[in-house]
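In the previous chapter we treated chains in isolation. Here, by contrast, the input contains two separate entities that must be folded as one system, with a combined length of 850 residues.
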Amino acid sequence: MTDSPRTFTVREDVERRLAKRYRAELRFRSTGLAAIGIAVTILCILIGSIASEGIPAFTAHKLVLPVTLERDRVDPEGDGSEASLRRGSYNRVLQDALRAEFPGVTARNDVRNLFRLYTPLNATRLMDVVLGDPSLVGTTHLFTMPLADDLDLYLKGRLVEDRTLSVAGDLTVTADGDALVLQSTNTDFAALVREIQLSLGAEARTLELRAEQVLAAAGQVPDEDMARLQAEAERHAANAVALRELALAGDGFLPLTGDMPSVIIETGGQAVRLTQLATDGSSARGTAVLGDGQIGNTSAWTLYVIDTPESRRRVSDQLLIWTRSLVERGMIKAGFNTYLFSNADSREPELAGVKGALYGSILTMIITMFLSVPIGVFTAVYLEEYAPKNRFTDFIEVNINNLAAVPSIVFGLLGLAVFINAFGLPRSAPLVGGLVLSLMTLPTVIIATRAALKAVPPSIRQAALGIGASKTQAVFHHVLPLAAPGILTGSIIGLAQALGETAPLLMIGMVAFIADAPSLGLAGFTEPATVMPVQIFLWSDGAERAFEARTAAAILILLALMIGFNAVAIYLRRRFERRW
Amino acid sequence: MIDAEVQPTVYHKNALGDSSVKVAVRDVSVSYGDKQALFNVSLDIPDKSVTAFIGPSGCGKSTFLRCMNRMNDTIDGARVSGSLKIDGAEVNDRAVDPVVLRASVGMVFQKPNPFPKSIYDNVAYGPRIHGLASSRDELDAIVEQSLRKAGLWSEVSDRLQGPGTGLSGGQQQRLVIARAIAVNPEVILMDEPCSALDPIATAKIEELIDELRENYCIIMVTHSMQQAARVSQMTAFFHMGSLIEVGPTEEIFTNPLEPRTQDYITGRFG
């Protein structure tokens, strides 16, 4: 027998099948790899998008303003008492301080616009500062407050598209009535003019195409609609003609309207907003927004373009120029967003923080932990180690397993009916939240503990019983320590689930807007509070754009909490884990 | 199990040898739920000797062994009837606290089951829960003595704080025996103590059992006829829940009175 086994027909058969089996295995393994790859990618995209959205919210721009706390302003009674200090007009103090920084702003509208740099809620914060240290009255105090949310977004580059163009020539500015005439020795505006003309042309072309489309559609609709469509086409066509005319700039000047990019010339602490660009590319007309406009001759100037038209944003050019000026003067500083952690919720995004929600979550979790873990563990120990196996315990077991699958909002309804209506516990309180979440967590803890107890080999129980340990001694000396890692993991998973739960808390009123953080003492349990996931839910609904970033930031904080929780679980499990 | 029923027992004369009766069993029956596992077993077990229970799997010998320290109590639905007296004291009585009983009837299981604790704590656990030692020194002495009796002292004296589960299988089984004798029992039950061990470890355990015989009444279940022949003084043969034949080991192996015993010993069934 020297020939290879391949000569046997039956071997070939086996080999074919073998190849098929290997292919099946490879298929299965590559499917598994692909599944893991997809899961990891999706997770990365998710975390990445939340992080890129949320990380900017961890920094904030703060306005540092020297405020003069004149006695007659902040202490109307003049006796320095708390009641008197509380009646002070702190917003006026802030307004005065801001006006002092911009002496040129006098027009009523402009002044009102100026006060949009900050939120008036900061007056309360200033009052708190003065109440904390009444000796400040009569002095000048350096007050730090967050910049208005939109301007903060602007400085983070998330509100508008803008750029600074380089210039080569010297600029001469002369007054012409109310307007200023700007003349550069170089064709510094030429590129901008061409750009604007091209974009106007493109816009006109779009309108013309739309007019054609509407006309084409008009031929296919009933007569009564045709007139309307034709009118629409005519309107588009007329708009297109107007735009082309504008771009042509028959008088040699291209007007800059609110629908076009804003062009601003900045030089030596002054800013001029351009209203017309000459088609020759070297001259323009504008109005002074910052400073008196007496610039004369200068070579140090920049051309700042905000591509997002003024009509399409919430903040005016004026406000942006003031903000830039304050940054230049070093009065606006970027830094860590302390408000995010030191404040509770607020209507103004720049003052809104997670402190209230964080404290609420901590208080709620304390209640949940101290109720669900001991009750759950001892229930599981009794059911697993002591309870006789009969119909009654079977019934209990089935019900516990079913409870784990009950939608969490049902527990919220139960909490509302039992804890608030029947027991009369306070609404929106961490105590009730903790009770409701305990109900929700109990089945998880019981099931996890029972699984952990089941996993302890029976030989350990027999060994303990065999040398005369009582049942309770066997359980507490041997079985529970061995089951501890599993119990811990289960409990922490249950608690983490409770930490991220929103629905049941909506029912018991923890969804309210609460501007004060609960105290971290015993009293805090009955004070109104909210929790992290509910805060995220509330912020995601916020109208201001700055809430978007804060929502993502709050998600990141919650995720960090969860990861911390799980890290503790893993650490404890490693510590308690023993082999047998 | 095919339909089992009460079978008469054949008793050899002089079954007790020179020893006195330690355990007197009369009409013990065990059933799990509606299935009867043991039928009216009666026998006397001598003190200071090794009694071996042999028989095919499922014949009820382990069940019977577990009656002696009421381990059947831990199984749901197990019922034990009949009388089982150790030194004249009834074991099978509700009034008897199994915790107290198990302190004087130690048990060694088929698979070595040390606690996942240190060697010292494994041995000291029994004395601790029963309060046998009043001081640390006394406890140390009990641990050392027990480990010496189990022939393990020389091997583990330098690592008493090491994990009990880190020992080899044979060492673990001797550790478990040390743990059982640490509470100073009168009877030691062994449920196939060598079935999970290699021949060398088995030989050591057998040697140990032979030594322990001087001080304790040892009752062991074994599947190995050679082992029963080597270490026991008395042998009881169980079949289908009944005690078929009981007598001095020598007689059972050389001159069985029952044909079924003969068949089992010569390997014709089982």
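The mean pLDDT of chain A is 90. DSSP finds 20 helices and twelve strands in chain A. Compare these points with the single-chain example from earlier in the chapter.
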